Amino acid sequence: MPTQMSAAKAWELLRAGNARFASHDSHHPNMDADRRRTLRDGQNPIAVVLACSDSRVPVELIFDAGLGDIFVVRTAGEILGESVMGSISFAVNSLEVPLVIVLGHEACGAVKAAATAIDGGGIPDDHQRVLIERVTPSILAARGEGKSATDDFERRHAGEVANQLIQRMPKLAAKVADGTVGVVAARYQITDGTVETLATHGGVQEGHAPAEMPPGEPGTQ
Ligand SMILES: [Zn+2]
């Protein structure tokens, strides 16, 4: 059964989960045998997250979420491709997930490699080349805005991937336009465990305080 939760509510719950994680107060919700049994008959995740594959960015852990809570897609450098957009389309259009998050992170190797390549540091000749190809436009855009710090390249890249998702996926764009789906660009900071919000689109409103979480949603025990 599709979730009826709003994008803003989903983002509020995930931000609250991240606050718990960052302050060493994770509840590890929705991990018991009852939850597993319930999920046998279907899933009803509250968000789809496109994140970097980096081992330091485990999506469910950093949002203190459990089984069935988040539909996760991960590629190195959170780069897009047909399979990635197909997966996100399934989540948004078939599962009716209300929130899409593009999650970059601090100290991203793919972003660093692309920046190095732009500066003449060499381009890999194997499959890793695609990482350079798909991160480089973000770095060039950041530089065009006068940015030179790696942190800012990472922020610009997550924001650019979110923009590209909306531009390339017409059904998603329509849902963002009418507010039924929200898209967030965010960046996970490895050092302190927090997720910073970079940009929001559609049905996501900023400035909400973390709400009380009703039973059965992420963050409950
Ligand atoms: Zn990364």
From TrEMBL:
Task of the protein: Catalyzes the reversible hydration of carbon dioxide to form bicarbonate.
Entry-linked Pfam families: Pro_CA (PF00484)
Name the UniProt record assigns to this protein: Carbonic anhydrase
InterPro entries referenced in this protein's UniProt entry, alphabetically: Carbonic_anhydrase, Carbonic_anhydrase_sf
UniProt record similarity statement: Belongs to the beta-class carbonic anhydrase family.
Cofactor: Zn(2+)
Binding-site positions, Zn(2+): 52, 54, 105, 108
Keywords: Metal-binding, Zinc
Gene3D superfamilies found in the cross-reference section: Carbonic anhydrase
A single MF term (Gene Ontology): zinc ion binding
Cofactor note: Binds 1 zinc ion per subunit.
SMART domains: Pro_CA
Organism superkingdom: Bacteria
Biological source species: Corynebacterium yudongzhengii
